[in-house]
Amino acid sequence: MTIADLCLLAAVVLTIGSIMPAKMDGKKEFDNANPRDPRFYTPGLRARALGAHMNGFESFPFFAAAVLLAEMRAAPQDTVNALAVGFILARILYVIFYLSDRPSLRSLVWMIAFFCNLAIFFSPVLAGH
């Protein structure tokens, strides 16, 4: 198992964990029988946590495909690992900036994560594979 493979798991855990601040903020109001009730995710922290959570699901398929493709096509593993860690670090910052209502920084680290993903995806080509 590679570091990049472990980053796939980290991306899933981060996505699931990003909704926790909303549930903790409204633990008395949260209805586990109706967890997707849009009224619970009112503007503010809960809405931002939901946004970060949903964006994690949106970004994961490309990240997973890029890592698997790069590894299947024998891209340099150290490069894939480093870029995957960069992606995860950027995504952690993304969630932090999303929750703390810092949209400009959030957009900046989103772009960094996206460029890490592009670099992983094209790493087999860049390595001549």
Question: What this model shows, in words?
Answer:
This protein is 74% helix and 0% strand. With 129 residues, it is mainly alpha-helical. The protein has a single domain, classed as Four Helix Bundle (Hemerythrin (Met), subunit A), CATH 1.20.120. The chain is elongated. The two termini are 21 Å apart. The mean pLDDT is 96.
Give the total of beta strands: 0
Strand portion, in percent?
under 5%
Classification by helices and strands: mainly alpha
- Helical residue percent? over 70%
How widely separated are the two ends?
21 Å
Helix segment tally: 5
User: What is the arithmetic mean of pLDDT?
Assistant: 96
CATH architecture: Up-down Bundle
Task: Report the CATH C-level class.
Answer: Mainly Alpha
CATH fold assignment: Four Helix Bundle (Hemerythrin (Met), subunit A)
Looking at how many chains there are and whether they match, the oligomeric state comes to single chain
Return the domain count.
1
Reading the helices and strands in chain order gives HHHHH
pLDDT below 50 for ≥5 consecutive residues: which ranges? none
CATH homologous superfamily title: Membrane associated eicosanoid/glutathione metabolism-like domain
Evaluate the radius of gyration: 16 Å
Assign an overall shape: elongated
